[in-house]
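Hey team,

Filing this mostly as a record. A colleague (T.K.) asked me to run one chain through the structure pipeline before their review meeting, and I want the input and output archived in the tracker in case anyone asks later how it was produced. No errors, nothing strange. Just documentation.

Input sequence:
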Amino acid sequence: MARITLEDLNGLDDESLDEDEEPMDGEEQNRLFSHWETVASTHQVTLPQEMAGPIMQMTQHSQVREPVPYVSLVQHEKCEERLYPAGKWACVTKGEPMYEQSISMGFMKLMRYICKENSTVPVVNEIRLSEEGTELLRDVTTTYYLPGEFQPDPPLPTDPDIRIVERQPLRVLTRVFYGVTTEETILREIRLLWELLGSTDTVLRESYMVAAYENPSIPQRRNEIWFIRRAE
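Output structure:
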């Protein structure tokens, strides 16, 4: 089981709550930490007690969940084609033994950066498949679209593992699915969408994206699989 450490988080718990926020009592803090500890265990990640401060900070911030902007191009029967504009994203790449561990570690790396500002939705995880297409490669990049007010001048990350990347417009085919995201469920959703699309060379076969819209503690949370259109 992977372990999130203070070194991994680059001093994530150093900052305290804002002075104008009412602190939680001890019982509420313990209940909140126990909740996230359970969530982390389902991702095969051990959550150390030192993470209680950062988790409380993020929870107490009243955030506006700003949607990542896009234009809907075509609404197919089973999927949708969208165009996402160019923009700046915060990115962390992790290569843990399991997909669930990589996305958890990546998100924890981004937590300090996200909890200080309004958040955007979805969080998008970039994956690559083996040449045979039967398994995910270890490196997973967890990405967070910067809110509109910070697009011109992004806050500087204090964690060297967080990169600010300016992406070109992205055209994708998307399909919604619900539940937990594991290597097994992702490979299944990729196969299902390929069956719906049939034979085509207009999308990439080696790279995909998984968009997460809801808290990982929600069992039937909304996700999307994204197929990436080839550049014309």
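Quick notes for T.K.: The longest strand covers residues 203-212. The radius of gyration is 18 Å.
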